[in-house]
Amino acid sequence: MSRAVGQSGSAQEWRRSLQPGTVLRRTYCPTARLIRYSYAQRLLPVTAGQRETRLVEPMDETTAAPGTRALLRDLAVRPSKGKGQNFLSDPAIVARIAAAAGLAPGDTVVEVGPGLGVLTKELVARVAPTGRVIAVELDRRLTAYLRAEIGQLPGLTIVEANVLRCPPETLLADLPTDTPYTVVANLPYSITSAVLRHFLDSPRRPARLVVMVQREVAERIVAQPPAMSLLAVALQFYGVPTIVMRLAPGAFIPRPKVESAVLRVDVLPTPPLPEADHAPFFALVAAGFGQRRKTVRNSLTAGLGLPKEAIGDMLAAAGIAPERRAETLTVADWLALYARLHADGAS
Fold first, then answer.
1. Predicted TM-score (pTM) of this structure
2. What is the DSSP code (8-state) at residue 269?
3. How far is CA 189 from the centre of its chain?
4. DSSP 104-153
5. Tens of pLDDT along 127-146?
6. C-alpha distance from residue 161 to each of 42, 133, 142, 143, 166 (Å)
7. What is the arithmetic mean of pLDDT over 109-124?
């Protein structure tokens, strides 16, 4: 948003009306004899109970990334809603996302959806000179552009593929199996959960994920009781999620209809259960959330096909009141319940 102020006018009253934390950019247009002010960043208050994060808007939607729209036209790329193609357009925001990944020279990064390579170049610079960035792009035209424009950057590998069909161990096949890596992604909202689980369910899971997701999804992932969900349990089972910042729609080309958020997940060095127990554990959790308007005892009775009395006994042994709902259970509660189910020999 911007405002032009003529020589005879004053911007003082308008500037005083802005929210605290607003940063302005001031430019002078000599031909029109105008001073133009535009938002550089706006910090908005968050609702009670949410973690304090920033809603960041671009410097100026028309100038934040000059040539982005023209470049997309030259490449004959019409951003696809089906592919969730919303391109970041502000270098300052890109730098903050890269900073959130906590990268150092020599690190390894898997980037999902590099698009026009704006974030890719920042990642390569941060892990140089000995690090690796493996950028996985589905769109053939964008892949060709990336290879022509930045394919020569040291340590950069560009892969044309659907990331959901590429196991992490395949992407990292030429690296030692104990090499830690970070996933950085601007994810299509429709496949957010699938991509997160794709990496976290793999035996070669990352040390950290920094991903752009829909704000509502990020808030569901970091939720605590009584607002837990199957997705929250799944992510918090593997790591500690935090919201780094929120982004206004104007940070992207084209503008999405919803706000976005940068989510960081610091993955636990060792999951709380052995690999062989992951599938049955999540089957238990899915059964618990299967009938969300019912108590956890009734949901598990229906989902597991066990007698209500047996479910009640397991809940009592795990220290969980049978009238509670699945949304009120923590990951620790589910682990305790799974331990009782396993101890009783039920499956």
1. 0.79
2. S
3. 9
4. -TT-EEEEE--TTSHHHHHHHHHHTTT-EEEEEE--HHHHHHHHHHTTTS
5. 999 999 999 999 898 999 99
6. 37, 15, 12, 9, 7
7. 94
